[in-house]
User: What shape does this take?
Amino acid sequence: MARSDSHFVCQECGHSALAWSGRCPGCGEWNTLVEAKRSAAPGSRGGGATRSRAAAPRPVSLREVKPPKANRLLTGIAELDRVLGGGLVPGSVVLLGGSPGIGKSTLTGMALGNLSARGAKVLYVSGEESAAQVRLRAERLGDDSLSVPVLAETSVGAVLAALEAERPGVCVIDSVQTLHSEGMTGAPGSVGQVREAAGAITEVGKRLGTAVVLVGHVTKDGSVAGPRVLEHLVDCVLLFDGERERSFRTLRALKNRFGATSEVGVFEMRSGGLVEVEDPSARFVGEASDAPGSCVLCAMEGTRPLLVEVQALVAPTEIVPPRRVATGIDRNRLAMVIAVLARHGGPSLAAADVFVNVAGGVRVDEPGADLAVALALASAHRGRTLAGPDGRPLACFGEVGLTGELRFVAHPERRVAEALKFGLRPVAGPEAGERIDGMAAHRTLRSALGATAAAPRQAVQAA
Ligand SMILES: Nc1ncnc2c1ncn2[C@@H]1O[C@H](COP(=O)(O)OP(=O)(O)OP(=O)(O)O)[C@@H](O)[C@H]1O
Ligand SMILES: [Mg+2]
Assistant: This one.
């Protein structure tokens, strides 16, 4: 009988089995067997005992190691280059994750178009769409994108052969979940298949000096689908994020071996492709309203301050439990802010539906958003605007503690400076070590509520 060249390895104990089963015969754990490829021939890697007699390899001092001479490849998309830490590093592997329809193919297609226009040799491997469909998108993205060579292929062997033959400087695999390796029985996208495909392509990419961008799907909880090991394998993990129905998208690095992970790129999806938003604060502040329930949050996106509008709506309801809907912020933090408000000088929202939304489809994942949510809720509840007499919205930031205190968050001076740039002052926030010009510091949520028109009437007197 022909021997299959794959076997199943338990991810917990390392037990190897010939057939898949739900429970590992070795350790008894459930769902841990993952298909893996056998190595070519036993002993071909020079097995333990013989290896020890071979000449020992000599470690080299880092001073003697030649630095790579190749320069980074600029994709021509400034926000993408910045998040990458200054462009693509030749021979590196980037994993670009994002939910369906967010614009991964658009972003990579535009980057390849720009690179090819600058004379780089590129290759776009599409496993999800036919060449005709890729062309359709490229037409929308402009003339440069039409010059990108495309390969509609899902076999790992064929992709590797194409890489060896073409030796492109940059290759995009869209997506790694569609690739399948002939020697394995698992369906494309299964843990074993993804790991095998990514491993093989990484190996060839490093050898040829090709910068490889693996496009990956994202699971419901926001992590890149497939094995965690994929994230270890690659040099850089980028996450393309945003609300699909909205036009704004953010690109951030979760891991980067060649740069900081704190940078964030902001894009807007238009008919002509993704457009970089160079000054996102200006966009969001320009759209901010002076209606009750709205305020401006001085958020930090990596090293860059970003002003976004936080909107709240409080509507009386008889439904028990009332609805708490959060878009762009964490639902649990919203629940916490509502609870703290009720206890520490704010309104009780127990009999109201609460909706909080970060305008523009931006997602803010930092505790510094708490105060903005609290003030917007209080203002919405009272029906009084937070805007100053000149109609400018109130800017604020700060973490709200469970005991009602306002807590320090990172980079207060940068947040305040960004708000001042747009004439928003004073900025409400927690006390920082030193005095910051243009900032109204508060020690507690109660005091911040009291200083703004959002406080319930009795609390104003108490504060
Ligand atoms: N003519 C258009 N004008 C504006 N936006 C468009 C237009 N055509 C497509 N889009 C946007 O582009 C998105 C699809 O982009 P793209 O195919 O790059 O996404 P993707 O992340 O690769 O999706 P998938 O997960 O299906 O591969 C659509 O969701 C839509 O928002
Ligand atoms: Mg796609």
